[in-house]
Amino acid sequence: METQKPLTPAAERILEVAGKLFYDNGIHAVGVDTIAAEAGVTKKTLYDRFGSKAELIALYLRRRDERWRERVRAFADPRATPERRLLRVFDALADWMRTENARGCAFVNAHAELPAADHPGRQVIAESKRWLLDYLRGLATEAGVRRPGRLAEELLILVEGATVAASLGVAPTAVATAKRLAKGLLQEAAE
User: Fold this and answer.
1) Angle between helices 82-99 and 120-143 (to 10 degrees)
2) From 158's CA, which of 21, 42, 48, 84 has a CA 20 to 30 Å away?
3) Which parts of this chain does the entry mark as a DNA-binding region (predicted)?
4) H/E element holding 17?
């Protein structure tokens, strides 16, 4: 992930407002006029700071990804075993769902709204999902399980499925169920 230069206070305000509006209403439902008005800036300021709505979307997704990664790492006690840290990803997800993810995964939602493969937001989305897969693979490798790549992929699918099922209200205990299933997969992979 590339390092962003610090944003001005106005740019931070624009980004905060845009992030809330994009997540709550959908990316295409929110225009730059609305973002500028809600942030108390002109459209010129928005374009001066971000260049385009596409770049603003990409930075909104990047910031959200940074928060998600911080949440996952915060739940992973470095003194715990790799197996325990793998399962703590589901605790991080449960907390994330309670505090920041009521409308489901912002990356999946954005992906559905950004059909152009070259949209800068699509790159951020892919990086986010790859990061979690790599993180899970690293912990699975540390745990010494058979086929750590396979286990990581299975756990990623559980995380993604639990996110969707919980946010839709279809399975309110989806994250706890996914964690229970992850324990079984982890035990199976360790045999």
Assistant:
1) 150
2) 21
3) 31-50
4) helix 9-25
* CATH code assigned at 18: 1.10.10.60
Q: Is the CB of residue 113 less than 8 Å from the CB of residue 27?
A: yes
Distance from chain centroid for Cα 122 = 13
Domain presence at residue 89: yes
pTM attached to this predicted model: 0.91
How far is residue 58's CA from residue 174's CA, in Å, rounded to a whole number?
A: 29
At 143-184, the pLDDT tens digits run 999 999 999 999 999 999 999 999 998 999 999 999 999 999
Q: Do residues 149 and 141 lie in contact, with contact meaning Cβ atoms separated by under 8 Å? A: no
Q: In terms of residue numbers, what domain contains 43?
A: 7-51
For the chain, the residue count is: 191
